[in-house]
């Protein structure tokens, strides 16, 4: 009897601790789910930047789980950061206006305030890549990371094909944007 009672206390303490650990804002629809259904591992989409603000590419490659991103850019002014970078829902329109790329890819309805907890990436907006993988200081940037929650299966949330990558400066202004374009197979 006493042993059962101690067990109950232990369980109570454990759930309290779990409750505190989960005091982190997550999506209204819950935590983001890993994408494990990419149709073709290695499928590659590229956003190409060629403006005064930034030059280079953000490459997205379908992985076993999620997307492997590579940011390879130059030109971000070192005194205007730190820079954020996101997947926004819409492609860049013909006008080139970054204002018209819509909001962040956010299928779980997390929104970007309060800022997300990078150690718990599943609680972040899917498109909030800098929130999950770190701001950029500027200068020459080469950065690689896997994001489990982005994908290239058109029927799943988290689909990034044809959406845009947007860089924001330290003030939050959208300083550059480019649409993710599929690279066709060049073999055979
Ligand atoms: C839980 O998070 C809310 C919102 O961020 C905060 O106001 C509150 O103080 C936190 N509670 C604890 C116990 O950390
Ligand atoms: C895309 O995801 C759906 C739902 O999870 C799955 O049924 C389908 O097989 C996937 N598509 C491909 C090409 O793997
Ligand atoms: C994705 O990145 C992981 C970790 O670096 C690597 O093991 C894997 O081979 C990569 N997948 C693709 C398709 O590039
Ligand atoms: Cu953004």
Automatic annotation (TrEMBL):
<protein>
    <recommendedName>
        <fullName>Superoxide dismutase copper/zinc binding domain-containing protein</fullName>
    </recommendedName>
</protein>
<dbReference type="InterPro" id="IPR001424">
    <property type="entry name" value="SOD_Cu_Zn_dom"/>
</dbReference>
<dbReference type="InterPro" id="IPR053257">
    <property type="entry name" value="Cu-only_SOD"/>
</dbReference>
<feature type="domain" description="Superoxide dismutase copper/zinc binding">
    <location>
        <begin position="54"/>
        <end position="171"/>
    </location>
</feature>
<dbReference type="Pfam" id="PF00080">
    <property type="entry name" value="Sod_Cu"/>
</dbReference>
<dbReference type="InterPro" id="IPR036423">
    <property type="entry name" value="SOD-like_Cu/Zn_dom_sf"/>
</dbReference>
<feature type="signal peptide">
    <location>
        <begin position="1"/>
        <end position="21"/>
    </location>
</feature>
<keyword id="KW-0732">Signal</keyword>
